[in-house]
Amino acid sequence: GEQFGPDFEFISDSKRIELDLLDPYRAYVQVTYVEPYFEPWERKYRKSPFELTYNVDRFCFFTPFTRSGTAHGGVADQFKRRTVLRTECTFPYVKSRLNVVGIEETVMTPIEVATEDMRMKNEQFESILSSGTTDLKMLQMLIQGAIGTTVNQGPLEIITAFFGKGSKAPDVIDDKHLRYRNRLRYQCKLFLANIKRGLDENRNLIGTFQEDYQREMEYNLARFRESVAPYIFNEDAQRQIREGSNLVNKSLSDADNSIGRVHSIDYSEGR
User: Fold this and answer.
1) How far, CA to CA in Å, does 212 sit from each of 114, 191, 203?
2) pLDDT at 34 (0 to 100)
């Protein structure tokens, strides 16, 4: 900001600006990261990278907050303010900067924030699995981030926070909240299905040296499904999941026994 003089200041924060607190004799520019914004019906038709970056005149950014005043909290307390900016022309344009001609702000409740988070996780899986040429490294990163033993607390925390016995009820339980509960439950089920699809694709692409990794991830998925099943599945589906987990455990036990037998044979023959 030095090139603009001493009476110029950058605001590198996405929070709402209180105009009364600004110095009327200074110039301010707020700089924040934005991404293209599309309505749900638009996302159905904009699939390719070109369609997602061409002829765009609306962009959004999010500002997290809680009622206690802090920016971040637990998933059951996390609100977000979504700000949608509309520019005077569509990007790309002959100029790299365009005037903002419209601003819309929407407060997202915790269950809306959680639903959007799960939807974006599913979009990442869909993008990798339907690309035609699977990026194995990126696929394994998504799988690890979803069901790795140390990093799967995000989805599990979301499910238990909104469907568990100790879940916090909102101030008002209206049709909108019930609708988002159903959407969140659907996104969670879709998330499990996408992890299974990802593991199936991974098995088709890996070599024998990654078999241990594959078995570990399948075991983690079985445990994860069993943990969340009481919250998002009916009783029949829960029974099938328990039976599937037992089969996975038996398969892992048989594999370990088989490895043990091979090691013992190699050892005795070496002597």
Assistant:
1) 33, 23, 11
2) 92
